[in-house]
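quick one
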Amino acid sequence: MTIRVGVIGAGGMGREHIKNLAALEGVDVVVIADVDAAAALDAAGLCDAAASTDAAGVAADPSLDGVVIASPDHTHADLTIAAVERGGFVLCEKPLASGVPDAERVVAAEVAGEHPLVQVGFMRQYDPAHLHVQSAMGELGSVRHVRLVHRNTNHEAERPLDLVFSQSLIHDVHTARWLTGTEFSSITTHVVSGPRPVEHVMLLGAMADGSTVTIEFVEATYGYDVEVEVTCEHGMVTAAQPSQPVVRFEGAAHQHVGDDWFGRFSEAYRLEAADWVAGIRAGEVRGPTSTDGLAAQRVVDAAVRSAASGQREQV
Ligand code: ISE
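structure w/ ISE:
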């Protein structure tokens, strides 16, 4: 059976999903929606789809098996709910919503239906390096500490603190929950400002099982770099960096660091799209759920409160 898909949002992320979905056998990307008609038309040309400016109409279109939501964050909750209410599968880019109340509305809409329909785009869960860490943890005993480093680059605009947390650190929050299989109970955040409101963040999380998590986030200037390290009872594991050639030239040895998340996580995005479609065929959600989206949003909320209060905040 051919899976009919619509993609809402024709920016960088929408185009990445279009490319990956169109390359899958048995998938027809039939419509691309964007408020910008020219952008929709251009992206539709990538896969011979129709173009639309009616995002809500595409989300609610009963002829589609699934929709990908890659439009601006504040539109995610309502579009996801529109798709869920007509029983369609959704791959919603992170964050699931622009705040806890909206994320709760999405979860409530999904619970009111017959079965789960929503996957959230926490794609690091599909990254081979992250998966190696998770499988190595199997023989290392209880988790003591997870150390995550996220050096971000290529961000178009200067972002206020709450956006840095809901757009970027939310990935690390999900990674910590996924790797430990437990929830954050409290958070302490320290933010270093400079010319931009956020230059550097140190976040210390206490997990419900007694382990700890640190997330170091940097608006870096040199490249895109993500590190994962887990210390356990009997050993520790560090994610291998995706291999890059070492070039010796003009008296120096150079190894390229990634430019952005599209390069670093290209394989993860590809595997995520394939798994989402396989889930649609099986009538189930296989990746991160709306409950994961809501849980991550609650942690982000506490982290933002801690940055303002200077205190440890309960999640
Ligand atoms: C961006 O929106 C992403 O989703 C990337 O994965 C993340 O690393 C980056 O910080 C975000 O801004």
